[in-house]
Amino acid sequence: MQPVVARPLPRSVLTGQLREPALWDAVIIGGGATGLGIAVDVAARGLRVALVERGDFGSGTSSRSTKLIHGGVRYLAQGNIALVREALTERAVLARIAPALVRPLEFVVPCYGRGERAILRTGLGVYDLLAGSASLGPTRWMTRRETLARIPGVREQGLRGGVSYWDAQFDDAAMAISLMQTACALGATAVNYVACEELVSRDGRIAEVLARDVETGERFALKTGCVFNAAGVWVDAIRALACTADGPLATVSQGSHLVLDRRFMTGDAAMLIPRTCDGRVLFVVPWYGALLVGTTDVPRADAPFDPRPAAVEVEFLLRSAGAYLAARPDEGDVRASFSGLRPLLRGSTLRRTARISRGHAVFIEAGNLVSVVGGKWTTYRRMAQDAVDAARRARLLPASPESPTREVLLVPPPFVPASADDFRERVADAAFIGWASNFAQARTLDDIRARRTRLDFLDTSSTTPATPSGAR
Question: Phi and psi for 286 in degrees, rounded to 5?
């Protein structure tokens, strides 16, 4: 299939479509990975769909990940073969439909203990085996010399060798914008800075989604027979608007990341730290000329829109990475940091969120409210397909074909940067600002700095005078 082509997305046109009194086949609440994936799926089936997002696309959890499309090595260690197999299948699909956004990346696991290399080689060999023909590269032993060559900067003392395996890396914010553009090119109406405020029910079903333009205060009544709740960690807040009787579906976990200078580990490969003091794996990943270190997994009782790493998380990440690096970083070496909140599926009796499955589930309540809980970026497409298929089985949507999204090529980004300097050049370029405003719905300076470029995620000392049209 040929890729769909991005088209101009004037806000006046998009909000004008929200004013139309005609019935929407579906209304989606939430413009992160799940909601945008659902918008692509519904639109690709030829149905009329609107999506509203109270902030910017991907501004919550979906722009704050570890930037990996992967099967999940630690899920394999937990014995969750089904989840790993599904994620590896989706990894191959995403590499095919978004080749400009998803690229293979070699990971090296340094080994210091006796027998450690053989154990890891066996486990990662199973990971490679599960990928089958969709493997991105062979898992292999590495000598001490090879390990030092692939991840220069790793601690040499006691190093016996390593194991190499392959996964994929992507830019989560760029993927979110690509999904939005693809959905709109397929006929969807997706608008940021429009907040869902009320769900109006009649005869035991939701009849209207009442939403408000955050910029102007204008209100819209979106009539529909099917509402998708893709609000992530705020999924239960949307369910509360529908007065659902059941208890909460999601539990919240915070994952934090640090960005360090590339000097701590040069080379093109990433490093996986196989076991931290809390039993997790940790990644040290080259990212736009810097190093991304993450992630933590800390339960939270609340769900702030802009979470920040706690001091204990920063200390944990620095200590864990420093144990494997020749030069130990400290707080003064942190160029940037960020946190994301994961909406984990409730129901586990396990206390530690690191051990709760990243699988997803779909619930239909209040007659026609379809809530999606759990999951991760790698499986966003499958999550969307499952949600739409569930709505079809419940006869909440008009008759439509099966999901074609395995073959829908996503709109590619306008450029592929290599470093923060590339982003700095773009935000000083009037043509890029025009693209961001007219084709990518950038409304604020933060939209430009954090998600149309990644400056705020790479170096908090970066500055730019650029501001998009309509910015606040």
Answer: -60, 130
